[in-house]
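Backbone-to-sequence.
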């Protein structure tokens, strides 16, 4: 079955349309194995704390420039680029400015699951293992190392 989900169901401030998109939707309710986050970070330095998920997260950078920490890598990403973070990899991002950073983040799971990195957890958990960097940016191009 197809679903059409109106803005007032997912947007943090539906009345601010079309200025910016901000909100989230757990799509598992609609039979999808994905979740969406629409980020609008106006302040330089704003962004989430270091965390990780047991699934991939894809960042589509719509506007602005951000510094993404992915495992041991520091990656500067800007509008038009897509960044893919592997499962169980500590990551965060922050707005470098000037201006806002807007991203659409796709979680490859029907509901959100995350753990803050650096918080005392079960060391046997797969979320605690060290993950080697698998990609980066070279001369503006995404490089994938397999």
């Amino acid at each position: 079955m197809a679903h059409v989900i109106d803005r007032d169901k997912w947007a943090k401030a539906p009345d601010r349309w079309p200025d910016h998109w901000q909100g989230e939707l757990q799509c598992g309710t609609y039979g999808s194995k994905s979740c969406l986050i629409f980020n609008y970070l106006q302040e330089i330095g704003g962004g989430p704390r270091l965390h990780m998920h047991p699934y991939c997260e894809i960042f589509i950078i719509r506007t602005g420039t951000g510094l993404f920490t992915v495992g041991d890598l520091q990656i500067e990403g800007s509008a038009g680029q897509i960044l893919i973070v592997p499962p169980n990899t500590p990551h965060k991002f922050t707005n470098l400015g000037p201006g806002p950073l807007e991203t659409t983040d796709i979680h490859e799971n029907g509901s959100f699951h995350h753990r803050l990195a650096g918080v005392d957890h079960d060391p046997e958990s797969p979320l605690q293992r060290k993950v080697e960097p698998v990609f980066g940016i070279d001369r503006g191009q995404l490089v994938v190392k397999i």
